[in-house]
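DM from R.C. (forwarded with permission)

"hey, sorry to bug you on a friday — could you get me a structure for this? deadline for the figure draft is monday and I only need the backbone to look sensible"
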Amino acid sequence: MIQKACEALQVQEKHLAPFEVEDCFNNNILKGFLSRFSDHRYGAIYLTHVNDIEEPQLIYATPKLHYPFDSAGTYRFPPAKRVEVYEKLDGTNILAYRYTCKGQTYLTYKLRLTPVVRNSRFGAFLDFWEEMLKRYPDIPRLPEINDCNISFELYGAWNKHLIVYRVPLDTAVLFGVDSNAEIRPPSMLETLGVPTAPLHTRLEGAEDYQREYQQHQVDCEAMNKELEDGAIEGTEGRVWYLQDIHNHIVMFKCKPESVEQIHWASGGLSKNAVIATAYNLLETDEQLTYDRLKELLLEEYSEDDIERFRPHIESVIKQITEEMKFKEEVFEFYHKLDFDFQREKNAVMRAFSRQYPKSLMRRIYSILSQELGKP
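My reply, with the result:
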């Protein structure tokens, strides 16, 4: 079956990962291959079986976003009719998609590099998503009424990445992706009141796109503030949806300097890029390792760059692993207390102060505030 998957996706075997998982939304067992090729096929699924019934079908997912310039810094915007610029939210990508078996259609949800949403040691992604389905009950209708898969971002303080959000947890529609891997920005979708990523501007006709793009980087940078722990309060950047002269939508990412900040060497990897990739890896892996992180970094950077900064990368791995371990320890202790953080903050912190040194109190308070609601 892998050869059929290679043919359908037009990729080599090395870019496909086999899977066999339960779709908990429908109690079906899904079997097939997931693409890790770094373009429009990123995260795509070639489903081979549903409950041991052969049902080959190709499902496109959330593509890999690229910059509009090459490694030499030369901008290459295709001829365009218009551009829509939306906020780039920093969280976990969730794709709502449909598959069929014996003539029946099922709706389920996946993470970027897994075929279904699931909880992990580092994130209760399934629980978070079920919370969003309760808050926005029209989400399941969107793939059907738009006749395409729908990409969402799950973000907030409970789902920490590089950008710090004050909202505990929320989601937004990013775009649709149809059976031909064509992208539809929010303006081309019926969202039934489900939030979308905020629209910043529309550029019509012939524009100096490089100048506009660089101005967006400057505007985003002015919004950002780096916090003590290295996280950023502000924005991850923008996403450009460029409609070319053939009416295809091409997406470009636009990030400010503080998000792409180079800590180690000009032209090489940035610490923030490694941190962001590490958090993405934790959506699918229970443990951070250099080899697994390197696999994802190779999608954006050369092997020479990665190996050159291996000591720095391993330092980031250690930092995030220790952060996650400490977070688990804090909540293990908290759940043994007979106090509610939202109603009895002082009592909770007094209990922690008897167990932990004073120097850690601010860090513990921040962890509890981010996970349990606004501080």
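R.C.: lifesaver. Residues 262-266 have pLDDT under 50 and may be disordered.
me: no worries. The radius of gyration is 21 Å.
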